[in-house]
From TrEMBL:
Species of provenance: Nesterenkonia rhizosphaerae
Biased composition (Acidic residues): 260-323
Region of interest called Disordered, as start-end residue ranges on this chain: 30-61, 246-323
Highest taxon of source: Bacteria
The protein's name: PknH-like extracellular domain-containing protein
Length: 323
């Protein structure tokens, strides 16, 4: 039986912000084909794993998950947990063979790489360079545990290297993660830029993750060239809106990103303010003096009246003296 894992280097973007992961080639036989898996032969195990389990707890059915994606993303290719379930164990086994440096990042790499996060049911929508996924967990705690792993990975694994030995050849990929600013009405949100380089090739992407209750929605867009800051900011806004629309439809709550806060006005320098006040006071005094001078000039009768009054007073004084 040939492996269904199609490439020696696979960039999985189904889960949130994964790196390039190195798996077996498509021509490789399944390892230990005759050995028991899960207490039985491979054929029996394959039959048991042919389809995903039924929803439990707060999990939503595949029909509801697929319907939400189909309504939001018309024409997109829709898949669900059943698509990946048969190979989930084999994929996990291959991921365990990866060498990750630093070693503390291995758990984050493996958990993020699985197309179906542990304990969830999923539906995925693909169209061109954009991919969206929704994960439905049994309860809110399980969803938050998954989100926490992504948050810790972003905080502690900004740069890491993944290596895989394959047919006496060592395949290596390096990943760089950078957090991006995001505004969302979801309970939890994060966004990042991801760059993966392997054997001269590179992959660039921007991704958004939102969680609300027992649901997690992810949206990722890949780029051929490094996007500039303005393009990344706009992509984050678009991806957040798409993920929020899926969560809104499934939860029945309207999840809307808040408006950006206005930028604070620049504070004036205290010395400049004092100087302006002193200058204003001087200008005010000069203006008052000038106004008085203008009033005197504009009213000549007033000056004549003052002179007449002074003459009268002097005359009166002289007459009084003569008397």
């Amino acid at each position: 039986m040939k492996s269904t894992l199609r490439a020696s280097t696979v960039a999985l973007t189904t889960a949130a912000f994964t790196a390039a992961l190195l798996l077996t080639s498509c021509d490789a036989e399944r390892e230990a084909q005759e050995e028991a898996l899960g207490g039985g032969p491979v054929s029996n195990s394959g039959q048991i794993r042919a389809s995903a389990p039924e929803p439990t707890g707060k999990q939503l059915s595949h029909d509801r998950l697929r319907s939400a994606l189909e309504e939001q993303f018309d024409g997109a290719e829709i898949t669900d947990t059943d698509t990946y379930w048969a190979d989930q164990r084999d994929l996990n086994r291959e991921l365990q063979k990866l060498a990750v440096s630093p070693t503390d990042c291995k758990s984050f790499v493996i958990t993020s790489a699985l197309p179906v996060p542990s304990g969830s049911l999923t539906a995925v929508a693909r169209s061109e360079n954009r991919q969206r996924a929704v994960y439905s967990f049994e309860d809110t705690e399980a969803a938050q545990s998954y989100v926490q792993n992504e948050q810790e990975g972003l905080a502690e694994c900004r740069e890491y290297r993944v290596t895989r030995e394959l047919n006496d050849e060592q395949i290596e990929a390096s990943t760089t993660l950078r957090p991006l600013e995001i505004r969302s009405g979801a309970e939890t949100s994060l966004a990042l830029q991801r760059r993966v380089e392997s054997d001269g090739d590179s992959e660039r992407s921007v991704g958004v993750l939102l969680s609300h209750g027992s649901l997690v929605a992810v949206a990722v867009e890949t780029f051929e060239e490094d996007p500039d800051e303005a393009e990344m900011d706009q992509t984050v806004v678009e991806l957040e809106a798409e993920a929020a629309a899926v969560l809104s439809q499934l939860t029945g709550e309207e999840i809307i990103a808040p408006e950006p806060e206005p930028e604070p006005e620049p504070e004036e320098d205290e010395d400049e303010t004092d100087g302006a006040e002193e200058g204003g006071s001087e200008d005010s005094t000069s203006a008052e003096d000038s106004a008085e001078e203008n009033d005197d000039a504009a009213d000549p009768d007033s000056s004549e009246q003052t002179t007449d009054e002074q003459t009268t007073d002097e005359t009166g004084s002289e007459e009084s003296g003569d008397a």
